[in-house]
Request: fold
Amino acid sequence: MIEARNVSKTYTMGSVTLQVLKGVSLRIETGSCMAITGPSGAGKSTLLHLLAGLDTPTRGEILWDGLNVAALSDAKRADFRRRTIGVVFQFYHLLPELSALENVMLPGLVDGHRNGRDLRSAATECLGQVGLLARARHRPRELSGGEQQRVAIARALITRPKLLLCDEPTGNLDSTAGSEVMSLLLGLNRQSGVGVVLVTHQAKLAELADRIIALQDGKVV
Ligand code: ADP
Reply:
């Protein structure tokens, strides 16, 4: 379970101080599907980054299974994140020179515990989970936007995370491809029990989640 307790985040640029999150508290139960919605600039991405441990709050705490993320050493935080959290971004961030399968294998290469053959078969399984086995050898430029996002989701699954944190995963896709990616995320949540947290400004997609948290001006409303 991940919990945000009274989290605030302030950015300071020179003499300008911007309070982006103002005392946000929420709990994400293991295996649930939650949408974080709200207008542009509300602080959704900032909150997701804090939940993912990619950044630390100015005040308040992010707890992963009761552990305060900010208090962990960099190495422990990285290790926990690798084992627990998969992140999916709006712009897939695939490496153009690698095939779909190799892109999926990448996070596993960082994780030195796996041998090459195990990793390849795990990556193949993840590509199967997103319905792209037939495209394993294709480079990103040979895939549509929706397919590239599915590869990015497979890559996030390779470490068998408990939770997928997705920042506007359909934001760069047309409505058909967006719906397909959304169905895939919901299906993964229902069938394999991976928790999903989805940042979206699209109310229609947010309604498909079990729970919606609406952010406005840095607060839960
Ligand atoms: P949302 O995802 O809801 O659109 P964001 O969390 O991306 O909102 O941004 C909220 C506000 O914080 C915006 O005004 C944005 O410009 C500002 N912001 C986000 N990241 C930074 C940063 N690293 N430095 C300064 N300001 C930032």
In short: Residues 11, 13, 18, 20, 38, 40-46 surround adenosine-5'-diphosphate (CB under 6 Å). The chain has one domain: 32-45+76-220. The chain has a mean pLDDT of 92. Residues 175-192 form the longest helix (18 residues).
